[in-house]
## 1
Amino acid sequence: MAVMNIREAINHTLHAEMERDPSIIVLGEDVVGGAGTAGGQEAIGGIWGTTGGLYAKFGAERVIDTPISESAIVGAAAGAALAGKRPVAELMFADFIGVSLDQLWNQMGKFRYMFGGKTKCPAVVRMIYGAGMNAAAQHSQSVYALLTSMPGLKVVMPATPADAKGLLTEALRGDDPVMFMEHKTLYGVKGEVPDGEHRQRFGEARMVREGGDVTIVACGRMVGFSEKVSDKLAGEGIGVDLLDLRTTSPLDEEAILDSVEATGRLVIVDESPPRCSLASDIASIVAARAFTSLKAPPAMVTGPHSPIPFARELERAWVPSPPKIEDAVRQVLAFR
Amino acid sequence: MQLSRDDLLGAYRRMATIRQFEERLHEEIKTGEIAGFTHLYCGQEAAAVGVCDHLTDDDYIVSTHRGHGHCIAKGCDVKGMMKEIYGRRDGLCKGRGGSMHIADLSVGMLGANGIVGAGAPQAVGAAIAAKLDGNGRVAIAFSGDGACNQGTTFEAMNLAVVVKAPAIFVFENNHYSEHTGVDYAVGTNKDIASRAEAFGMKAWRANGCDYFDTYDAMRELLDHVRAGNGPAAIELDTERFYGHFEGDPQRYRGPGELDRLREDRDCLKAFRARVGEAKLLDIAELDAIDAEVAQLIDESVTEARAAPAPDPASVAEDVYVDY
């Protein structure tokens, strides 16, 4: 198995899948970069470096730099998917879904249903999300709860390089619209990635740690934070079941319920504001379906109900952090 | 114009089908049997048919919330459409879409759309797909004068020019976006074609109440686009006989305006006069088509009424291919 980081895993998967399937096209702002400039094309390969080399290998017909027009990018992906292609649209920052939301929500997410199941829309929208780079309120949000609430869309959040490859491959082979969410602080995370074909089914959470005393449910960047906390607590003899959801739609409810039934205690770590969040969604599912297993009220570790601030001190205060996760675990353990 | 007798009879049949489909809906809606919002296309038949008569099932169109005419012109099954509008299980979209969301990908109809201006970027995407395959297909974005003010339309036109996509922006200017006049809502002297030109594409203008004018302009336009010149646009000056939605009392119309439209701007009347005077067809042949179409529409309503409703248990089916 090769060791690579998440950025490399995504780039590697795009190369491999585009080679395999000529119907895959990539489009977005500066996914090539440099068009119309004196310096020339392929100046950037995506501001996150994920689309580098695709232009050289697959050309301008399949790797399309677009103007800054998110509605047109996502709408064109929707139309190309209806016309038989497998478009991969990139939203440079997930916050920009506001500009393109109609095409995600009313259009690609609803085509199949509205058209009586006679249509499929195999589009992947890669979007870069999350806090941690002091990019402030309009470039830092984790919009997965919003997207998870929309029937017709699948929402995918890799936390490891292996999952980045496995989940992106699955997204590109499936026939539904997939919101593929890449946390901007995780691109450098390294790990082993299976060689050759590697597909990770959606809706299958990953048990990162098994401990038996308390269940932590997390996704994206929050998985790593929770892992740190779990390691620390293991030293004190506190065993954590840590679940990495991998996908929030579909959601592996059974894995969550199985673990909670065994531990009786639940902490949900969600990099979102608290209201109508993934945390509140999972808490409601557990309350409805595993109420009698619970030995303590579920704890939700989220940001406050506020936009994400700029200053380092403020952003750190906003993001769910290992100490806050640890506090929440101790709180549910102490509940009698 | 180089249209054979068969072409002319076919064009008339499609226009007459749209007209009778719409006139019948206008009556049936009053019975209360049809749920929801219905936006009638009646009056604009020459636009849809003049555009789509140049296309095959391999070409793509995206439509608007006033989509029945585009569906029929592109070849969607009329009985399936009627059942869909009646919300029946075996409607074209299993009763999930209704009037505003009819689609049939088997004939290149990528969907009517309830969101004004949403279709244009999708047409560009379909055109990008066609360009990549080099198969000569084109993608048409039907938009009204209302949609010409949506940012999506501007984004789509610019993107199409940048990537030289074989996309065609057909603006059907029926002078009303909902209940607001084009003179008020379109800032560029109510001229939509010049907006398309400003995005760097060639634009045509045609009388959308005249089948022949629309057909001829579209032929030139399609030659231009199929030759690889990138996107193009056409503004069709047309008329809407009914309101924005069915039940709209049209208080915004001037005195006598609707009567004058029916008298002077009826594309079917104009077609009949033209082919009659030029002795291209016998009026009796057109009357015979009218009678055949009337029977088809009758049957479609009868069958739609009798068709089974969808099973409530299927309410959440077909959201995903695989979940």
Note: Chain A touches chain B through 46 residues (CB under 8 Å).
## 2
Amino acid sequence: MSTKITGAEAVIKCLLEEGADLVYGYPGGAIMPIYDELYKYQDKLQHVLTRHEQGATHSAQGFARATGKVGVAMATSGPGATNLITGIADAQIDSTPMVCITGQVATHLLGSDAFQETDIVGISTPVTKWNFQITDAAEIPAIMAKAFYIARSGRPGPVLIDITKDAQLAELDYKYKKCTSIRSYRPIPLIDSSKVEQAAEVINNAKKPMIVFGQGIILGEAEAELKAFVEKSGIPAAWTILGLSAMPTNHPLNVGMVGMHGNYGPNVLTNECDVLIALGMRFDDRVTGNLATYAKQAKIIHFEIDPAEVDKNVMTDVAVLGNVKDTLAQILPLINKNSHESWHNEFKKKHELEFEKVINDDLNPQKEGLTMAEVLEQINIASNDDAVIVSDVGQHQMFACRYAKFTQTKSNITSGGLGTMGFALPAAIGAKMGVPNREVVAIIGDGGYQMTIQELGTIFQTKVPVKIVVLNNDYLGMVRQWQQLFFDKRYASTEMINPDFVAIAKGYHIDAKRVSKREDLASAVQEMMDSKDAYFLEVCVEKEHNVFPMIPTGASVSDMRLS
Amino acid sequence: MENKKFTISVYSENNIGLLNRISAIFLKRHINIESLTVSESEIENVSRFIIVVRITESSVKKLVGQIEKQIEVIKAFYHTNEETIYRESALFKIASDLLFDERQIQNIIKESNSEIVTVARDFFVISKSGRRSEILDVYNKLKPYGIKQFVRSGRISVSKDEMAISKILKDY
């Protein structure tokens, strides 16, 4: 049955049809008809007014990453739309499903440099999975259905729909049909069974195999298949930064993180394994280091949903295309049971070395200054390893990914590919709204915090009980570390004269505390975790502590430095 | 791996904005497009892009992979010159009096299998289709007499191998 409604109302109805009950956004002239309808539908569709459109996209991302659903963000035309771009680019590189809706000037004004007009479709093209401009209200239901289908299917990603103001105001015969296929789009490649068999043969003949799993496991909901595969094959499994939490951190076959600041064993042994099994990961340069020396001795098996990722950075011997949930399920019966004990000992030996040279000092420092790692450890203790950790970008992010412990999937939310400072505070808002029964802790540096600090206003207004931990070293810590190591300690523009963060949080009526002494840390973290409301904790940490191990840019994974 | 000339063929839905999306893939990788032609294909509502680039085979493979990722792209292929039949077209506008005063011009037209498209009081127009080198040859021969306007199209090509787009569309 069809009924006549406005384009603006159709947008809201489409969102509800797709199961969206929460949108993040910021109103403005060109999207006012949609906001006017939101007013009418506020009992069905909650709108969260962020303090900046960038905050809206990061919140939508946090929601999507914590729930696996599509996040929705809205903005007006022109500056509203361009302010979404950082979050969209972040979602694109990290494969986050998101639908962004922007208002646009009226159709007859398009191309006339009208007030608040930008070519947002042109601007967002390189950073969206798909985008479209609607100038005819009748197109709204079909395009919205297509947008959600594209955003969530196959390798997920952000979609932007730009709707002219006249299309929002015009009436249409509303009829909704979910999109289930598009003629030119195959979201998941067909599985070639012969490739699965080839991969199984290589794996069964391997003496020193290792697994590197990425976010494809989480996006494909293949956690159980991964666990079964790892446990049957007995192969040591390492995670990429976005793969973290796909397998419990304390799993005995979990050997740590690969990449620039990952763990020593899985990085160095990448260049000693005979078979490298990449599961839903894309061989990012932060993972591989120098490609010319990366795993040259190993046969590479790549399980991947996106054919364009195969052989993009690392040449594979066997490419198993498909959803990793399905391909792992297919390969499992073909895999021999094994334990690879002596090979595991290699990882253990490397871990002992890393523990002695790095981890022990990070967790049990003998010096006075607090380390970021011990803060993470206190959060692990207070949350029983069960919090969702949303980290920003920088040293604290690396410490969070190295030291936070996870028991559940979708618990590590961070800006991986784009490295967007300012991500964590709004992303934590979205994550907490997505999984309100879980504890969500944002770990942020003093630099990134000030990039989206205005979202404290969103927290105050919505009363979303996120926990915010700022690890304050009064520096842009990671840049300073690079300046120390590679630029002769010339600390150009990395020292920050910071405001009174506790006073600012209190200004937003958020409970807040500052700690700088070791003896106060555990109780402060506990107090934060015990709070039922939002809570801000500033921890003053050692100013010039560095993140190690480290693979310097362009170096080989086997040349990882421990100090 | 050395740079070679490749002809990329893209079969896509006929949608607004796709040209922007595809050209952005080249821009992002800093790859110069030598020529680009877009037209209808043999299938209704399916467009065909012909893009000529000079890059390594490993780059063209990745490029085609990225192009195929676009939602509206049905399939993309790349071919070497030997694997395709290809042509370009050119128009030369020349002052009419030269057609009568310079007998050699008529010989150039005849020998190069060019066509006279139109003759007006002040100018006449020659059309030449063929490989780039053949068009260039005509250009060089006509140049001494004075060319008022010259324009050359991008490459159009068909592959020697079948592309089977209809079958791909059926399989989706």
Note: Chain B touches chain A through 21 residues (CB under 8 Å).
